[in-house]
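In the current project phase, we have settled on a layout for protein records. One protein thus recorded is set out beneath this paragraph:
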Amino acid sequence: MRRTTVIAIAATLSAALAVTGCDSSGADGKAPKKQAAPKADGQDINAHPLSDLRQGGSVKVPITQWITQYNYNTVDGSQGDAMEISALVLPDLFDSDAKGAIHANPNFLASAKVVSDSPQVVEYQLNPKAKWSDGKPLSWRDFEAQWKALNGSDEAYEAADTSGYEQISKVEQGKDAHGVKVTFTEPYADWQRLFDPLYPADYIDTPDKFNKGWSEKVPVSGNAFKIGEYDKTAQTITAVPDPKWWGDKPKLDSVIYRVLDFSAMTDAYLNKETDSATALLPEDYKRLVDAPGTEIRRGARWDEVHITLNGGRGPLKDVKVRNALQAAIDRKGINASFSKDLSFELKPLDNHFFMPNQVGYQANAGAYGEYDVEKAKKLLDEAGWKDAGEGKPRTKDGKQLTLDYALSAGGTSAQTDQAELVQQQLGVIGVKVNIKKVPANDFFNKFVNTGNFDLVSFRNVDQVYLTTSYPVYRQPKGKNLFQNFGSVGSPKIDELLSKAAQTTDRAAAVKLYNEADVEIWKLGHSIELYQRPQIVAVRKDLANYGAEGLASVDYTKVGWLKK
């Protein structure tokens, strides 16, 4: 299971979480020794062969909100927890390993390969055993319906991302009933990310089915697991093995997802209500590290924390105001204030596309990432916002310079601390920030996804494919924000990202993404803070699960060790 079709978005668990060895101060009170950053292929899943696992048992997984949309390809469906559950129960054509390399999943694909470069043609040969839960075999018609829904030709389909699908000219039957032939108008480097997961044609072939047919339910599944129960009262979603599954039988009897506020996750784990918990915050780590039967597992996931600036409304429509905020927010200060009890220094992230432990990373922030209060004040002067004196908001045309910072009420104290630090730092330059706490279940659906904020902090995760970044930075089209929730973009950025997507030479594509990154910093799209690797408390006898890093989770291999 891998979130690949669009970037998964997730709430910020903490404002200081870019660590891989979270060892808090020892008994002598001294700060822990700072360690090196994680390797790109860092993971810890307690790997075991299936012969070591017993049959049966459940894994209880915490999630952050009730799932309102299981269509992975809509904006609400691109929330991280929703994407994880959707990928668990739908055909998962490709998986990634610990190094982020992509492999065809033999449960669904006998083969998948580029058979022509000009034009680019991809031929898929489906596993003849692969069927939907309604008994129909997977076929080229499912591919065709997904392409038509996501290629941007009909705006009634509320697609989170049309890139890749826009480049396809034709989808047709391949060599036989199990073959699929996809022809592109121009090369598309990350073709494996398309149709993954696959949706059934009969359930997405009209805008109404696509937009509403997957609201709070999965009408048809097609994987080792299916949804057994939705309990909105208890806020749990239970996945169970599908007896019609043609592959290796899962070891687990169920995977139970439970909605919890971040502040409740450690207690839930200690009370055995869940089997994993994030151990990133020092106060949580201290409580979890010595819990009976617990291991702390660490990995290097593609996971970045940032602050999005909304250029689609209010004062932040002006690029000079956005640039002023970039100069006034002390990224090093925010990171340092939280890292004193963590195992290595938090360094500001200076790239929107690559993590510091990835090939291709280069620091592109330049002057736009430097803390400079006087520069910030000068930019606001130039933008016409007059200084009203120390401690008072600047004014323009009789209006005060005020911004809303949206914050999930289900978040951690560290999230609140980060918001308050930003509030203080911007107050120095005459920007008043109102911290607006909103219900956890509404945070994404009603605020982030709709652009209903001035400032907001969340995470983009699992960017195994570079092209998944396109909807985050492309210019919105009408009311469709794609995943560019702050509506900050330009034709130049679109052009560079489109060209990069067509570039099959990896080194040349990396160069184009870095060129686009320079433009993104100039426009004040968002303020990158840090990479957030995984530090997870997991039951010691739970195998093939934990901190996967860049790799996919295979729930058919997750299970409990024999006694």
